[in-house]
Amino acid sequence: MEWAILFVGPVGAGKTQAIRTISDIDVVDTEADATDETALLKQNTTVAMDMGVMLLGTHDKVRLYGAPGQDRFDFMWDILLEQSRGVVLFIDHSRPNPVGDLAHYMEQLNRRMEGRILPVVIGVTHTDMGGPANLDVYRDFLAEPASVTRRQALPVLETDARSLHDVKTLLLALTSMLDMNERFPARSSAGRGLHA
Fold it and tell me: From the centroid of its chain, how far is CA 150?
């Protein structure tokens, strides 16, 4: 069995680091020198995708794709979403408007999935650098009637992208959603799910 998970989120939220943390191979990346306002945040940034692999057994593996955080490279989302069975959305808690970032990325995901329902988990990073790390602000936003989620409650977890435990926890949450989709296929076209 071989399938893919897509990591998305703003520049610097931890996508590349999380893939490096969990991948069983050296991560293939397409980083280039950052330009425009991105250079204020970090020296290098992903311009096409990152790719790692998580090995689950003799024949099973999960490809881990990291999408660019800059909107001008968002055409890669369509290509990567088409191949993915689930999404990990990273939100950088230290940014000026992280709930606004969540709204933007959820709207983009819903628009691009064109009726497909893919499991999504949310990892809130850099909680040591922003305001108080109250994850309820994210959960409350997702629960609002006007929210664009249109899906079951999404797991929102405080995450350090450098921590193997934290990244595994995100993927286990995603796995449980994939398993639910397998048991109740009318809710999603996402497929079989992960049995590790």
Answer: 17
